[in-house]
Structures are given as C-alpha cells and as structure tokens.
Write a structure and sequence with these properties.
The protein is of the alpha+beta class. The protein has two domains: about 170 residues, q2cbj1_9rhob like domain (Jelly Rolls, Sandwich), CATH 2.60.120; about 40 residues. Helix content is about 30%, strand content about 30%. The protein is built from five helices and 16 strands. β8 and β9 form a beta hairpin. α1 packs antiparallel against α2 and α4 packs antiparallel against α5. The protein is globular, with a radius of gyration of 19 Å.
Length: about 220
C-alpha cells in the first residue's frame, strides 16, 4: 500500500522542525546505509545525539506515532530510530531496497513499512522526488512539508538528484503487528468502515459491536503481540 498522509506536522511543529534542523551537525549519509545501498547513497545525515537533535527527534516521533491514519494503516508494533537526511548539490540516493532487519539485540526489528516525512517545501528545491517501484507501478512523491509518505519496505525506491536547494526529510521504518500486507489492508478497510458506522450508529448497536468483534478477532488471528 502506498499512502500519503497530509498534515502530520502542523504549522507550529513544522516551524520548530525547520528552526532546529538549521542548527544540526551533518555527517556523510553513507554511514547509516547497508553495504549495497552505501554505494548509491549520496546525502547527509543529521547528528541527532545532541540536545537539539534529541528535541527534534522526539517531536517528530510523537507526531508520527500519534497520527490515527498511520496507526490504522500500519498497525505499528515497533518503530525504528528516526533519521533526518539532507540532500543538495546534485546529491541523490540511487535505486535500492531497505534492509529486511535493522538494529541489534532487543532493538532489532523487521522492516515491513518505510516512511518519509517531508520537512522542506517542494518549491524550495529542484528534483528530489521519492520514486517507488511497487507491483508494476512507479509512484513519484514530492509532497508539501509536513506530509508523510508510507510505503512497503519491500519496494525498490530512490531519491532523484537534487539539482538546486535543499531537500530535508525524516525517514524511518515500522515493524507491524500484522505481518501480512493483505491482512493489514483488510483491517484498514474495516477500521474505516467502523469510523463511518460510528457516525450513524450507537457504539452499543449490534452492527457496531459485531464489526468491533470481527476486527478484534482478526487481529488475534493475524497479529503478533
């Protein structure tokens, strides 16, 4: 499933993110890539170990985790640590697939879904489209600042060269509690149906209760605790 979520960051959060990002220290982005991706990754990664970096990371993480549509779509079990990247001066991140597992020990997670939260307005840089190849289709994303693109980590994808300006984004990965993508889509549809039904039916009505029971039992059937 390829999905764009609008307004994950509001205007105030976006202004704060822009202010904080301007003070960060940047390092070679290849340091956070796998062996194959390292050869095509030509961008910079923010050092989030500072007080300013931690403040930005925490603010972005809270906004992402709180978004109801992301929660309904991804059924998150765990999130990876966030990365903030900057691409400029012809930089790019060539065609690659994300590592199937990230982290070590208890922090190790399976990457089911990837996301990119745009922090730069699309008119402030040239190029830099996120290009995702999935199920015979190619999606191009260059959204408004504050919007998030969610897509399967199984997909080949790339960031096209940035020919002018700066492209700053936050990226991360999700291990879903529902491992199967088709099952996640069914649950997403049912959650949308429940939200619609809640506008016309009492939550104690037989229709609403039956749907809620079905959602809960499917999550028991397909889910991982």
């Amino acid at each position: 499933m390829f999905l764009t979520l609008s307004g994950v960051l509001d205007a105030g959060q976006l202004a704060t993110a822009t202010e904080l990002a301007a003070t960060l220290r940047w390092i070679d982005g290849a340091a956070t890539a796998g062996p194959a991706a390292r050869t095509v990754k030509h961008n910079e990664q923010a050092d989030l170990s500072s007080r300013t970096g931690a403040k930005l990371r925490d603010m972005l993480g809270e906004a992402i985790r709180a978004h109801p549509v992301l929660a309904a779509t991804a059924q998150p079990r765990r999130f990876s640590p966030l990365l903030v990247s900057r691409t400029q001066d012809g930089g790019t991140y060539g065609l690659h697939v994300d590592n199937p597992f990230m982290g070590t020990g208890e922090a190790r997670l399976r990457t089911d879904l990837s996301f990119t939260l745009f922090l730069s307005e699309p008119g402030s840089y040239e190029g830099g489209e996120l290009e995702i190849h999935h199920a015979g289709n190619t999606h191009h994303a260059k959204t408004a600042a504050g919007d998030l693109v969610l897509y399967p980590s199984t997909s080949l994808h790339q960031v096209c060269p940035v020919t002018s300006g700066q492209r700053i984004v936050c990226v991360g990965w999700i291990e879903s509690s529902i491992r199967d993508a088709a099952a996640r889509e069914i649950l997403f549809d049912l959650e949308n149906l429940r939200a619609t039904l809640g506008q016309t039916h009492d939550v104690r009505s037989p229709e609403y209760l039956t749907l809620s029971k079905s959602i809960a039992n499917l999550m028991r059937l397909w889910g991982e605790a």
